[in-house]
Request: fold
Amino acid sequence: MTTNVMIVGVGGQGSLLASKLLGHVVLSKGYDVKVSEVHGMSQRGGSVVTYVRFGDKVYSPVIDKGEADYIISFETLEAARYLPFLKPGGKVIVNAQEIDPMPVITGAAEYPEGLVDKMKEAGADVDAMDALGLASKAGSSKATNIVLMGRFSNYFKDITKEEWLKAIEECVPQKFLELNLKAFELGRSE
Reply:
């Protein structure tokens, strides 16, 4: 059995570190892991998606529509954009933050309202949280990615909290370690 995780957001939000952390922790548990390249205009604040697939044997890093067990989204509109990839019974973990895309910034469009409710109405199991607020509480808004990984860690009972913390220690530069450990704890316990 393969577990499929999509990590989606906007360029600069830390999706690479989140996918590296997830890949690291599941690899340490003996799973075969495939992590895709980041797709999108990450350097310009555009939509970014990373695929992480793990299981006994994984042959491809790509997740097709209707195959994602989890979507971890750093921003609400990105969660809605990638919802067609969620399989029935899958879970969306979303930071309830709204970042205006270029059409909204230029006035060509308006940011859609009520996206979390709309995703729920479409049948998605949505775990929405203020990850940005928790990251700020931890010491930096840039730790939103680790807050979300903390929340996500609650859904994997075969990976202990200690194993997640060890993976953070191995993936995060020492000078940011304390901040990221705190962010993870806040995301996991909220």
In short: The domain at 2-104+115-189 is CATH 3.40.920.10 (Pyruvate-ferredoxin Oxidoreductase; domain 3). The longest strand covers residues 86-95. The beta strands are 2-10, 32-35, 39-40, 47-55, 68-73, 86-95, 125-129. The mean pLDDT is 91.
